[in-house]
Amino acid sequence: MKVTDHIAKAKKSLFSFEILPPLRGHDIKDIFYTLDPLMEFDPPFIDVTYHREEFIYVEKENGLLQRRTISRRPGTVGICAAIMNKYGIDAVPHLICGGFNRQMTENALIDLNFLGIDNVLVLRGDPLKSEKSFFSKKDGHQYAVELVEQVKKLNNGKYLDNTFEQKDSPLFDFCIGIAGYPEKHLEAPNMESDLFFLKKKVEAGANYIVTQMFFDNKKYFSFVKKCRSEGITVPIIPGIKPISSKKQLNSLPSRFYLNIPHELVKEIEKIKDKKMISHIGIEWAIQQSKELKDSGVEVIHYYTMDKPENIYKIVQAVY
Questions:
Q1: Angle at Cα 234 formed by Cα 232 and Cα 236, nearest 5°?
Q2: Closest Cα to residue 123, out of 146, 107, 106?
Q3: Are the C-beta atoms of residues 212 and 182 closer than 8 Å to each other?
Q4: Distance from the CA of 4 to the CA of which of 14, 79, 93, 246 falls in 20 to 30 A?
Q5: Would you call 239 helix, strand, or coil by DSSP?
Q6: Largest alpha-carbon pair distance within the chain?
Q7: Is-above-0.85 flag for pTM?
Q8: Which string of b and e fits 78-111 if b means at least 16 CB within 10 Å?
Q9: Beta strand extents in 233-310 (DSSP E only)
Q10: Tens-digit pLDDT profile for the chain (319 aa)?
């Protein structure tokens, strides 16, 4: 079922969450360990992130460096299939620009369609650690809007090779999700510019928006208001992540371009017990979630980041 159908049929606020594929060499049981406790709350869909390849340099016996390509978290498509098979829940794979050309993207969408997957979350993706800026693969997409356009074209039966075009009954009908940034994308010059390109993605065919994490609900409510004033009418799902360590006070703002409220920072800074920091982060996220739920949001989306126990405590208190 499509994410938008879940929202339309819901009689109460739903919850969803996002998981990471396990590191290479780990077992699918690691994923089930994350998911099993959360099944108690009947999530309608689960996001599975995609992680592009990385380049590492290994020193050879002669002292020269050899570049190798490695994917640390493979298995997105297989995990989606496993989730749907084991739990009977819709899986939403992330689809990114980085590391894919257009033909690879089309092939990936064909695989997802064969598996009966109805939803994709379309993202540009991050630049490689060795790159200062994002660069697409040759004949790939530089921007997420281009990727949205390709998925939409395939939904309309238009393949890259038009000899396969299906005019009467297209085989694909993906529901397309995109990312939104309540405090703007870190590369955007200003919020107005960010909203302009967000609207372009919706006009290209996106069906819903999931926001980047935020720690002040006023940022989300303001973002929704600005989107609506720009004519963006699709569902806007808030994304929540509990802080679990003191170092995140610096790492999250620098990596994701977001603000952490001073009240929350003060509470965490004075704590020496690491376990208590997680407790404060959970309590903050619970209050955020309750306010969002009371405001009537259709879905609250949680970023687990391999810490399912934190999300369990939040959802247990809210739902």
A1: 95
A2: 146
A3: yes
A4: 79
A5: strand
A6: 66
A7: yes
A8: ebbbbbbeebebbbbbbbbbbbbbbeebbebbee
A9: 236-240, 299-303
A10: 999 999 999 999 999 999 999 999 899 998 998 899 999 999 999 999 998 876 666 777 777 777 677 788 899 999 999 999 999 999 999 999 998 999 999 999 999 999 999 999 999 988 777 677 788 888 999 999 999 999 999 999 999 998 887 777 788 999 999 999 999 999 999 999 999 999 999 999 999 999 999 999 999 999 999 999 999 999 999 999 999 999 999 999 999 999 999 999 999 999 888 889 999 999 999 999 999 999 999 999 999 987 889 999 999 999 9
Cβ count within 10 A of residue 6: 19
What's the token pair of residue 73?
Answer: 């978290």
Please name the amino acid found at residue 1: M
Detail the DSSP E strand segments found in 124-245.
175-180, 208-213, 236-240
Beta strands at 90-96 and 45-48: parallel, antiparallel or unpaired: parallel
DSSP state of 157: T
Token reading at 199: 């609207």
**Spatial distance between the Cα atoms of 283 and 319, rounded to a whole number of angstroms:** 14
Q: Which of 133, 156, 40, 132 is nearest to 87 (CA)?
A: 40
Residue among 131, 123, 106 at smallest CA distance from 54? 131
Structure tokens at 172: 């694909």
